[in-house]
Amino acid sequence: MIETPAARVPAEHRLLGLDRRTFPFALVALAVWAFWVALVPWIDDHVAWDDRVEAGDVMLVTPDVTFTPAVGWDVTSGIRVGDDTVVGDQSPPDVVLTDGSVTLVMRAGPWDGTPRELLRQITAITTTSEGGDAFRVTGPAGTVTTGQGHAGAAENFTSPRVTGLLAAFVFGGDGVEVQAVGPPDQLSQREDEITGMIESLTEAGSAS
Questions:
Q1: 3-state secondary structure at position 83
Q2: What's 183's DSSP letter?
Q3: What is the full per-residue pLDDT of the chain (208 aa) written as tens digits?
Q4: What CATH number was assigned to the domain covering residues 52-203?
Q5: Buried b / exposed e across 16-37, counting CB within 10 Å, b at 16+?
Q6: Domain positions in the chain
Q7: Residues facing 143 on adjacent strands
Q8: Which residues, including other chains, have CB under 8 Å from residue 12's CB and lie 6 or more apart?
Q9: Nearest to 157 by CA among 126, 185, 117
């Protein structure tokens, strides 16, 4: 299949050829990557999480988008549906879940392009910032679909110490980035749980 060329990014949104609108998404990708490489080994030895996911928990990604976290994972950041912390259209904080040495992050921000365009820009900025050897995509982007039928774009990446998954979705005017990262063996063991969390992304008012 021949992929059509991506639409040119408007000049007011470009910086060094990259789309500035994706910088917050890429910064999160870099932060998670750096968090795992530099801090997770120390945290595993020194910090005991005490906010475990229980059956029935649902996490807020945007005021209108939620997902079901895997039972037993630890919530290190994020708001559950029903909490009073987020009011009205206020944007919830990034959701950060951990299990063992695996970290999953979901974050949202304004985006009016496609999931594939968002993923392409996140990857371009991350690769430029970290260099090809530190962050390397291992194959072409594929499609991942939620239980509601929302199609997103996803790709796998690797670095000297970790492997991971990047995925991007668009719900209305919001882009949603998903990143799962960890050592290859632990990431593989949790593949079904990670897939289930991604597929559980749900937009309020959207037909299933």
A1: coil
A2: -
A3: 223 334 444 444 333 343 444 445 544 444 444 444 444 444 444 445 579 999 999 999 999 999 999 999 999 989 999 886 665 667 788 899 999 889 999 989 888 899 999 998 888 766 644 445 566 888 888 999 999 999 999 999 887 777 889 999 999 999 999 999 888 999 999 999 999 999 999 999 876 5
A4: 3.40.1000.10
A5: eebbebbebbbebbbebbebbe
A6: 11-46, 52-203
A7: 153
A8: none
A9: 126
